[in-house]
DNA sequence: TCGAATCGTTGAAAGCTTTCAAGTACTCTG
DNA sequence: CAGAGTACTTGAAAGCTTTCAACGATTCGA
């Protein structure tokens, strides 16, 4: 429990050389004669000396440590991302310092500042809702930055994102082709950049469909299972129940399945489900979950390449990469059960067949609890 | 993109005070007159000065950073652990530096050394298979350490683990009570401390059951789905197919479900399944997965408390905490289908009903591929 | 009024490394 | 053999902070 660890000076004395020589052996900056190198190595061995990275970073004005900031690690998508980064980075001799932002701009800012205070060599960031202050601070510090997954205002930073618009458009196209006319999109945070993109694409695709498709957005934040179930119940029992639900992540997908079960909804007959994100359980639930698969490993590799490049040369022009995601339809998506009015152009009420909802069917307006609002993307006529 | 950040000296000049005073304002070490404090704060604001944690850590010989090392973050259990630690730690003003060991003692050692080189204030470690070298290095550095989840030789370090023996014993008791007589335990790494505990408990419980129960261990390492399926197939089609499978983590549980499906095994009729770990999908698969639930949040809190205590006073006696896990039986565990020989005491072949295995039934000895071996824990007579 | 105690302030040293100008010993060239 | 390289080697400075002995100013007590 000796808190006094040997320093480079101890090594130098032990080996009978100067500290400069030891440093040169360690870093290979300047060649050192074979004999001295040996002596230094031996001394290092004998004293079991290890570098003090704090002193090294202080002197070099930069540490070989790279920061990684994601919102959570319990979301399958992010934990895969973290693992992928770890793989890529460590195989190239970098250390990763990981922090979690919990989707909270304040926490994010504070943690990122702390990383900057450690003079990290670079940062990979999945930005939270309002990352501006954080981004400014990073820019001011001159730390190389790559923004991942959630786009920010273009031009300032390297970015690696997914083509959420294309993915959503494709998803809607496929659902519509199966006959779905009312789609609900369940999101965690409405104003998140990725969400905005997806919502825009959803609305656009809905508008362009013939006949046009009704869409609604349900924002759930960090609500727990019961709350989400209640909200979903409200929507499903409303006058215009959706026939297909798209969720923005796998946690919500799980919530939906629980909700369907506790509500006694026939699934996938009465309601289809499609999830962004690709949980490990997608293919072991019944019916198998349809997903939008995002190429996590490619993201990690690309982001890393961007970061390394910028660390080598901070003046390199800003790059942006938008990766394609893939819509995988499986049994969780099925044609909707035959509806009373096949041509859904007017304002008449659509309703799921009566037998599908077990409990007392209270007719409420869908926005009665302020949670789910038809977003009016449908063309009026 | 200005790489020159202001230092404490700049602040001192700007405020017209000495650097010592600035430091005192920043750290509150020694009281500073109100007027000067104001000036310092203003200067900090104007220059947007932030500490250099490297210099601070160098001088203080210890950084306020705490290390956290887990094997992976894609395993549900560990990602929950990481989130829990993050919560606890950050709510008390500590920064966490997280690394992954990938279950590889070499990687673990290298990454932990790097943390030690940063003079971290403490370390929480889920040790890999052979952590001795790493543990020695940590001890030598005098860094406070708490070992989590997987026990190591007692007496040297604070430890927070689960009572794996009790959990396994209880699991076997419940399975036996339902009539199971042949239990297969699927593990990732056989010699992992937790695995050893569980295996020992499994064998002991099997031996004590009346009539005694046959057990076997299947080690799968990092094998992929197909490989695992093949191995499971071999076991299930062998002369003594198990009626219940216990898996050591949720990833394997998912693998089993895939294997059951692709092999056409009747589940849970023909085979029951119980998993250590508690994935989010446990209650959305059909049948619901039986699990051994481990109180992750409690682990995080306890480990953190141990660590803080030791950081305050390194001489405090070593503490050990063993938390109780909880066996939750759900539909994935059912009484075994009636077997031809109800009293399973001898060496006669047990076999699952013929109709349950769809493909050609090759009679092979269970260890024919060297993967699964009856472990002989059953009493000979 | 004097000495002591208190309070706030300061400048220098220390913490451990890398970098670099300057120096030394050697080899090579003409 | 002198001069010019060559190839290491060295010690000091710098990087930014905290700590601490020392000091000046003020207050307090007798």
| Quaternary status | homodimer
User: Roughly how much helix do the residues of chain A carry, as a percent range?
Assistant: 25-40%
Classification by helices and strands of chain A: alpha/beta
Give start-end ranges of low-pLDDT stretches of chain A: 339-381
Major sheet of chain A: order of its strands?
Answer: 12-10-9-8-6-7-13
Rg of chain A, rounded, reads 27 Å
**H/E order of the elements of chain A?**
HHHHEHEHEHEEHEHEHEHEEHEEE
What value does the average pLDDT of chain A take? 86
Largest sheet of chain A: 7 strands, mixed
N-to-C terminal Cα separation of chain A, in Å?
79 Å
Portion in beta strands of chain A: 15-25%
Number of helices of chain A: 12
Give the beta-strand count of chain A.
13
Outline of chain A: elongated
The largest inter-chain interface, given as chain pair and residues per side, is:
A-B, 58 and 58 residues
